[in-house]
Amino acid sequence: GPRQVALAGGPKFGGTPKRMTLDADVTCATATRGTNRVAATGVVGFTPTKPVVVSARDLHVRLEPLQIDIVKLLFPTLPIGGTLTGTATLNGSGAEQLVATNLDVVHQDGRNISHAVGRASVHTIGRQTMDLDVDSRPMALAELTQFEPTLLPKGLAHGPVHAHGPIDAMK
To answer: Per residue in 98-129, pLDDT tens?
Structure first.
């Protein structure tokens, strides 16, 4: 049947879909995908193409939380689940590089909890790629097996993490 979605909050938009000023704090609750709350201020754009290209300028985002299932609508090959909570500033375009700076996020998937601070970027057109340069505080090593099943790490890691490459190869 149809998805049951409850929206709360008052987003304010100005401009055109390709270049909108945004001031929003929106909560979206779904029966199957849980609750998402995203607050964002800055400039965001969407192209009318397929696939849609997202661009941003000084877009300050706060996730309280964001379900990874929603992220998978843009990145279907992402091999993780759970939720993301935290903040980032987005700049650029998915056609070249959409960059998240001032990244401070917690990823929780069941009992695995990882906290990362740093920078990430994605290229969303064609073969989707990700570059990750973060400091883990800590990272649940079991999460790494989602990207590379031949690894069997346990416990927690602290310190710098660098990952670069196609998202569909990270599984």
So the answer is: 999 999 999 888 888 888 899 989 887 777 88
Name the H helices within 4-67: none
pLDDT at 2: 46
Q: What is the β-pairing status of strands 129-140 and 5-8?
A: unpaired
pTM, two decimals, is 0.77
Rounded Cα distance between 65 and 101, Å, is 18
Q: How many other C-beta atoms can be found within 10 angstroms of the C-beta atom of residue 138?
A: 15
User: What is the reported pLDDT for 47?
Assistant: 85
CB 157 within 8 A of CB 138: yes
The Cα 39–Cα 73 span in angstroms is 19
Q: 């649940």: which residue's tokens?
A: 140
